Amino acid sequence: MNQRRNDLAAVVVTGLMALSLGLSLTLGLPGCGQREGEEEILARVDDATLTLDEFLSQIPEEVRPLLTRQNMENHVKRWADTQLFYREAMRRGLDRDPEVAPKLENLRREILVGELLSREMEEKAQVTDEDVAAYYREHEDDYATEIKVAHILVSTPGEAQRILEEIRADGDFAELARAWSLDESSRERGGELPYFTRGSGVPDFEDACFALELGEVSDVVETGYGYHVIKMISHRPAGKIVVLEEIEDELRGYMMAMRQDELLSSWLDELRAGARIELNLDLLERIEPALPGGGSGAMGPMDAGPDR
């Protein structure tokens, strides 16, 4: 167990160090920090410095108790080695290489967008204890019920609408799932997912599922995985009553995800309204498509274990 915790700490710090280097390259920061003053210098490579405060700022507080002295020493040494390689890459002008420059710009864009979203969500998507309790009371019956649904996952709204129309014209849901669904975990079962309760998966997907009556088929539902057509198969009492204290943390995360989705959707609508956007999606026809539902490695919206 201790080895596993140490490995986790090592992975986290390695990733954070890599991100720090990416920031210095793409955002044009000097080394990994040259602000000396009264700060304690943990490492130095020529004029690039890593201060103790900078090192600590890159490690989430919840990870710090997992770190050993050896973990920290290894990653400070890795920072120094990485600076040497970084200096050599810059000396060779790789940042101006026509093959490398677009990759750096993409990384720079992703970092800035990630930071923008992180700050915006941290400020506006907070969920209080009162919010959690109110949501639980409103959906208490859902936590006492397990449902089983089948779904068909595809990559475009047009595909989903075509499949939905086939189903409504008496098409066989299970056969259509086997033929077209991208969710490899459920495709061969005709799209059937394991029984689940509220709070087990993607919020938009769950909301659509719990709104269905027995045997009912949904309209097209969009999630981060793609576009779904969902059918309610059955429902039953949950194996045990889930009390708020048992799921409070999971529920808070679930509610934050829902709130973030709502905020992002609204924000995107505002940004789109003030921009000129042109999408020439017909050009995608020139790309050889994968076989329907085959070998995509796509996953579905429920991170659930084996059927119960």
Descriptive account of the structure:
With 308 residues, the protein is mainly α. The protein has two domains: 123 residues, no CATH class; 98 residues, Roll (Chitinase A, domain 3). It has ten helices and five strands. The chain has a three-stranded antiparallel sheet, with helices on both faces. Helix 1 runs parallel beside helix 3, helix 1 packs across helix 4 and helix 5 crosses helix 10. It starts with a helix and ends in a 35-residue tail after the last helix.
Strand order of the largest sheet: 3-5-4
Please identify the structural class as seen in this structure.
mainly alpha
Detail the poorly predicted runs. Answer: 1-13, 16-36, 291-297, 304-308
Instruction: Give the biggest beta sheet.
Output: 3 strands, antiparallel
How far is the first residue's CA from the last residue's CA?
Answer: 28 Å
Helix percent reads: 40-55%
Number of strands: 5
Strand content: 5-15%
